C-alpha cells in the first residue's frame, strides 16, 4: 500500500510538471501585453481538472 502512495505522488508530480510546461509553451511575446481569454484554454483546463478529480475518486474508491 505504501508503494502505491509513492507511485501516486510521483505521477502527480509528473502530471503537474507537464501542466507547467504547457503553460510555459503558451506564453505570448512581450509585445502582446493585452490578455485575451481563450475559450480553448478554458476548456482544456476544465478537462484537466475533471481528469485529475476522476483519478483521485478512483484512487480513494479502491
Automatic annotation (TrEMBL):
Pfam families: AGP
Membrane-traversing stretches: 41-61
InterPro entries named in the record: AGP16/20/22/41
Keywords annotated in UniProt: Membrane, Signal, Transmembrane, Transmembrane helix
Source organism, top-level taxon: Eukaryota
Signal peptide bounds: 1-25
Protein name: Uncharacterized protein
Amino acid at each position: 500500500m505504501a508503494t502505491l502512495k509513492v507511485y501516486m505522488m510521483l505521477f502527480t508530480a509528473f502530471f503537474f510538471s507537464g501542466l507547467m510546461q504547457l503553460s510555459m509553451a503558451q506564453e505570448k511575446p512581450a509585445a502582446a501585453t493585452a490578455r485575451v481569454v481563450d475559450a480553448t484554454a478554458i476548456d482544456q483546463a476544465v478537462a484537466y481538472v475533471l481528469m485529475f478529480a476522476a483519478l483521485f475518486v478512483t484512487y480513494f474508491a479502491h
